[in-house]
Write a structure and sequence with these properties.
Length: about 650
């Protein structure tokens, strides 16, 4: 398998790449140590409620890595990248001494007598379906802590039908209250099966022995054992991660049908725009051309687009969207804020497309789901580099519309350029940092491994200050000064001049001419094109599945862009026809309203598709869903505004105006 795991490391090597412990190319010599890393323990229902492995009173293996021995590596931190830390990984050395010699071995240890606190920890873990996760040669394995059984004996056995511990975790439910006849039992024997092909490890399995269940009692000692056995196989190394991918779930016929259904929606909307809007615009052009000819004293005998004579009764005065030609290119309200939103939105458009394309090209540089934190790694890099897009688009938009403001007409000196640049730099990072800081504080109070280390925060700050901010400033300068011609007026790029005094907006218009009635409908159509894919994405985020069908995601992203653009065009046309020229915020809101439906779907998903509970998990879930909705709103709002902006310029370029 190609080993280009860090395609952007040239620029960010010192900041975001960590030293890799172990064999980088996953090839071992006979007798070489194979490190087993422990990652976390926590309730299966709450993905973010994860703690360090030795939060539970497990014992250290009696090997050369035992804490009592000098130079032992037990509980030693594994050096990780920023993406791994942000992904909630905290790998420590397990203390086991496993060598690549194909010899079966058993390692064990015995705990100290359990205290009341130890019993309470194990009881809570077993009651709430806690599991632990380990990594061997970058392959994850999962194991159950124990079982709640209604048996009074000191030892108990359990018949297990599931193939491994992870499969059993999905079929065992949490126990809300422990009854008098239910007791916690802990698995004390684990079987680690390692399959190898030549000098590479291709499969790792971990199963807990049901016969090793021991009742948790105060004062008792638990003897834990790990049996390691080796088995040769002909399976290839490049496909070793396929067994972790749920192809049956992600490539279900419903998934294919949803993409086809979304594609049909695109065709319908494109047909709607072509059949209704373009035909209507053709009539509008004919009517506006007739009015212009009448005002110039032309022949009164005119024909419509079908060649039929137009009677004098049809000689209507200028009305509809042409009536606002002197105001349609007026700057939107709160221009600096709007320019910053547009710039940030285009950055997110580029960022999302870049990350998805990077994932789609996984076969060339290494599949992103095979490396911990690889997607977050790509997000950090693409966000930093795309900051120039945010600066350029916000600067260009402000340069385009500022001359239409009253301040520009009065030739007032202004520092709004600096305001636009500052808002573009700070807007999204500030909101994101506030949300993540609150989540980090909650995680720190609860003591979970999802707490972002201080050194990682410093590295992220340096990336933002020394890469993202300068690129955004450079982009703003390019947008402000790029392509300017001193001999031309700043308003010549608009097809219509802007009146000095705004015209009043009619109040007596039907509901389909008011933004408040159209924006929710536009968002509903856009949400309808992605909600099936949204289910798969949320399931990957919150239900321990590896998302790997990035081709689907790229197709749905393209469909979303088209649907948002088409719906925004329709909404803007209806508003302009009602002589409402305040179309810019309307177009942005038409796309951004998709985020409201996504957040509401997230609420539905939380209550009906998960078993999450507790303040910590609720805060993390809705904190992350707020971030997802916020970013999606900016992205879709920008796409909607971009499509509507092109549409408005196109239709006003083809009408006769004074």
């Amino acid at each position: 398998m190609p080993m280009l795991r860090r395609p952007f490391c040239g620029l960010f090597l010192l900041l975001i790449s960590g030293a890799t412990a172990g064999t980088i190319d996953h090839r071992y010599k006979k007798g070489e140590h194979v490190e087993l890393w422990v990652n976390k323990v926590g309730p299966y229902a709450n993905p973010q409620e994860a703690y360090e492995y030795y939060t539970l009173p497990y014992c250290a293996p009696d090997t050369k890595h035992h804490p009592a021995n000098k130079n032992g590596r037990h509980n030693e931190w594994k050096v990780q990248s920023i993406g791994e830390y942000l992904g909630g990984h905290a790998l420590r050395h397990s203390g086991h001494d496993i060598t690549f010699d194909f010899q079966d071995q058993t390692e064990g240890c015995t705990t100290k007598p359990l205290t009341d606190e130890d019993v309470a920890k194990f009881t809570l873990a077993v009651q709430h379906r806690w599991f632990y996760q380990m990594y061997l040669d970058d392959l994850p394995v999962w194991g159950m802590v124990g079982e709640m059984l209604p048996i009074e004996s000191e030892k108990a056995s359990l018949k297990v039908d599931e193939k491994d511990d992870r499969d059993r975790l999905e079929h065992v439910a949490d126990i809300s209250e422990v009854s008098a006849n239910m007791h916690p039992y802990v698995y004390t024997v684990r079987n680690l099966s390692i399959r190898y092909n030549g000098d590479q490890i291709v499969q790792v399995d971990l199963t807990s022995d049901p016969k090793s269940l021991i009742k948790v009692l105060k004062g008792s000692k638990l003897e834990f054992k790990l049996h390691v056995n080796w088995e040769a196989t002909t399976d290839q190394f490049h496909s070793r991660f396929d067994r972790y991918l749920d192809h049956e779930f992600f490539k279900h016929p419903i998934h294919w049908f949803s993409v086809f259904n979304s594609f049909m929606m695109v065709l319908f909307l494109m047909g709607l725009v072509a059949l209704i809007l373009l035909r209507t615009l053709k009539k509008d052009y004919a009517r506006y051309g007739l009015v212009a000819d009448m005002e110039e004293g032309g022949d009164s005998e005119q024909v419509d687009e079908d060649g039929k004579p137009i009677k004098s009764a049809d000689h209507t005065e200028d009305a509809g969207w042409k009536q606002v030609h002197g105001d349609v290119f007026r700057a939107p309200a709160m221009l600096p804020l709007f320019a910053a939103l547009i710039g940030t939105g285009w950055q997110l458009v580029v960022l999302t497309a870049s990350v998805i394309l990077f994932a789609v090209l996984g076969p060339l540089h290494g599949e992103v789901h095979e490396e911990r934190g690889e997607v977050l790694h790509a997000v950090i890099v693409c966000y930093s580099l795309s900051s120039i897009v945010a600066g350029y688009m916000s600067g260009k938009f402000f340069k385009m519309y500022y001359p239409t403001t009253a301040a520009a007409r009065r030739n007032e000196k202004t520092s709004l350029w600096q305001l636009v640049m500052g808002m573009t730099v700070l807007l999204l990072p500030t909101v994101t940092v506030l949300i993540l800081s609150f989540l980090n504080l909650v995680s720190l109070i609860y003591g979970t491994i999802n707490t972002i280390p201080f050194l990682v925060i410093i590295k992220l700050f340096f990336i933002w200050v020394f890469i993202s901010v300068p690129l955004c400033v450079v982009g703003t300068m390019l947008g402000r000064h790029g392509g300017s011609d001193p001999s031309k007026s700043p308003l010549e790029h608009f097809p219509c001049r802007v009146n000095a005094i705004p015209r009043p907006i009619p109040d007596d218009v039907p509901w389909y001419g008011k933004p408040a009635g159209l924006i929710p409908l536009a968002g509903l159509l856009s949400f309808g094109s992605i909600f099936i894919e949204l289910y798969y994405v949320l399931t990957s985020l919150w239900n321990y599945k590896f998302y790997h069908v990035y081709g689907f995601l790229l197709g749905v992203y393209s469909i979303l862009a088209i649907v948002v653009g088409m719906t925004s065009i329709i909404v803007v046309y209806f508003c302009l026809n009602a002589e409402n020229y305040l179309w810019q915020w309307t177009a942005f809101g038409s796309g951004a309203s998709t985020a409201a439906y996504v957040f509401l779907y997230g609420v539905y998903y939380f209550f009906f598709k998960t078993q999450m509970h507790g303040f910590l998990q609720v805060v993390f879930y809705f904190g992350y869903m707020s971030l997802i909705a916020l970013n999606l709103g900016l992205l879709c709002g920008t796409l909607g505004h971009g499509a509507a902006h092109s549409f408005v310029k196109a239709i006003f370029q083809n009408v006769k105006v004074d």
